[in-house]
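User: Here's a chain of 231 residues. Predict its fold as C-alpha cells.
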Amino acid sequence: MIASVSGILTDKAPDAIVIRTEGGVGYELTVPLGVFERLPPAGSPCTLHTALVVKEDGWSLFGFDTGAERQIFQRLLGASGFGPKLAIALLSSLGPERTVRSIRERDLAALSTVSGIGRKKAERLVLELQDRFGDVVLDSAPGSRPRGGADAVRALENLGYGAPAAEDAVRLAVEAHPGADTAAVVRAAPGRVAPCAGKKRTASAAPSSATSSFSTRLASIDSESPHANSL
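Assistant: Prediction complete.
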C-alpha cells in the first residue's frame, strides 16, 4: 500500500495533480476539490496521505491532506455502488466533516445535492454507513455548526441556496459575529455567498419574490428567537 507521497508539486489541475519524489518518480493523484484548493503553488514541496484503488482497468491513486479524510474516502468505498469517482464527488461537494455529519444525521437532502447521488442512493449510503464513522477523528473547528447554525443553513436552503454554499455562508457569518443567534446569522449570511450557488433556482423565481420569501422567513425566525442579535 502507498500510504503517502512526498515531493515537489509539479503539475496542478483540478482533475489531477502530480508530485515528483526525490527519486524522480512522478505520482499522479486525484484529490477532492477542498484538498486541491489548499494545495501550495506548483513547484512547492507537498505531502499527501494516499489511497490506492486497484481495478481491472488500472490502478488509481487518490490524495488527501488529512488522514481522517482518507479514512472517510475508504469507508465510502465500502457502500454498495459507491466507487472512487462518486466518493471524490461527495467529498468535493460537502467536505469531510459535513459528509460524515450528513450520513450520521440522515441528511438525505444534503447528500442528494451531489451529482450522481439520488435519493435512493443517499438512503442506501446512510443505511450502510451511518454507524461506520465512530472512530473517525475530525477537526470540527472549520466546519462545526455553532448555535443557530443548523436552522440558518436550512433557512438559506429554503431560499434556493445550495447546501454547501449555505453551509459556507453560515460558517463565515458566525466567524464574523460570534454568539449570534439564528435570526442574526441568517441576516448576515447572504452577503457572504452568491445566491443559488450549487443549486439552480427555477426561472419563475423572480428577485422580488426571493426578497419577499427571505423577509417572511426572517420574521418567522425572529418570532422563534426572543433574544435575536442585530448585526
